[in-house]
Each structure stands twice: as C-alpha cells, then as structure tokens.
Sequence to fold (187 residues):
Amino acid sequence: MKSTLFPFILIGLFSLNSCNAPLQTEKNTEEIHFDLISFTDALASQLENDNDSFQYKLTVNNEEKVVSKAEIDWEKEISFIKQADINKPILKGAYEINEQKSNTQEQVDYVAKSEKEKVRQLSIFKENNHITRIEAQIFEDLQLFSSYKSFWVQLDSTQALKAYHLESKEEILFLGNKLFTVSAQRQ
Fold:
C-alpha cells in the first residue's frame, strides 16, 4: 500500500511547489504616444506663474469680439488640449504613426486607422527637440448630435505659450449648427 501512495505523494509535492513558482507575465506592451495630459498640466502650471496677458478674438456664428485678459484660470482655459489624448489603453494600436525628420525639425503625426476614433489626428512639431506646435482634429458623430473640433497650440523657443486657435462646429438635430472660434495671442 505504501508503494501505491508514493507516486501520488510525489505528484502532490510537485504540484504544491509549482504553485509557489512566480507567474510569467507578459511584458508591458502599453503604447505610449506623446503624453498630452502631462504636457497640458505643465503648460497650465507655467502659465499660472506668468503675468502676461492674452488678446482673444472670439467668433460665435459670425459675430466677432476682441477681448484682452490678464487673469486666466489656465487649467480650464487650455483643457481642450486634453481632449486629444490618445494614450488610453482602449486606443492601443488605433493610430498609425508617421514621422518626418530633418536636421533640426521633426513632425510626428498620429492618424486614426478608423473613423470611429474621436481623435482623428494629432500632430506634434519640434525644432531642436523643443515642441513648437501641436495640432489636433476631433470628431464625434451621434444620432442627435455631431461635433468637430480642431485646434493648434504654438509655443516659442522657451516652450512658453505664444498663441492658440480652437475651432468648434456642433450640429444638434432640431437646433441647427453652432460654430465658434477662439484665437488667443500673447501680448
């Protein structure tokens, strides 16, 4: 009887030992594109410490207004940039990356492979490894509502915000179209 239990005891011991073995995990294959969230947070923080004012040109349904403003809640003001974030896990593999480089300039375009993605394109422009411009196009198409947003953000050689432009068109069933643009320039 002892000889018939011995193989089962050995199998049991090997099974218990294998439970303590470290699990083999898949390497971290998370795609990291340009970190727009961190960039926007750092830019807002930098702008909060500046005392510069900006001149705004606002256009809503073809009515234009020019305003200068010194006190601005920058976290809210430039939050539209975060809408172009493509670093969500669900978006892994959803963008084609096109890079163009020269001696001092670089452009990286993240282009959606499918029209179902809200962010259709995100472009990052650099000169001497410093970001000079960011552009994005964002679409949303639902049954009762559709919207299109595009923006660009221009930085100077010190990485300070120089200007930006935001254009938005919304179409709401039964209410029609609403078009607005905001252009801001450091004074």
The chain has three helices and nine strands. The chain has one domain: 31-186. Confidence is low (pLDDT under 50) at residues 5-29.
